[in-house]
Amino acid sequence: MKQKEIFLLFGRYVILVVLGLFGLWIFYAIFTPLTVYPVNWILDKIYGSYIVEGFDTIYLKGIYLNIIPACIAGSAYYLLLILNLTTPMKIEKRVKNILVLWGCFLALNILRIAGFAILFYSGYKYFDITHKAFWYFGSTIMVAAIWFGGAWLFGIREIPAYSDAKNIFKSIKR
Fold it and tell me: pLDDT of 56-82, one tens digit each?
């Protein structure tokens, strides 16, 4: 490996560690308003809702919907970033890939939250079990599908972390 490649590899992993230890709040600071406002827009068009108490609670005709951090799923954005930064690729492709990954997740998350709000408001009998099932299984499947979709779209053939390790061991062997 060339010195520049080693520096970039090291930098990618340092970014992940620093964000994981000190910066997870950044994902929530960015994605909370990007999630809550579109959800409110959808619900406002259907029911006439509005945002109260800062920007994390939506009032919907007698019901307060508190959009908690678990709904925003900042850790899912971080996981997508981990997958992106632990996969070797050129910087241009990396930036485009992470923007597409985050954009897809944001759009699906907005639709998921709005859909569950509609189910809750309409008194759907199986709301709790549906919500829990989606929380435990659907979220993981959604993140995995977005990653594989992005890998397909951008022609990524490398395996996160494994490809980096393989390249390091190849360099050491030489």
Answer: 899 998 899 999 999 999 999 999 999
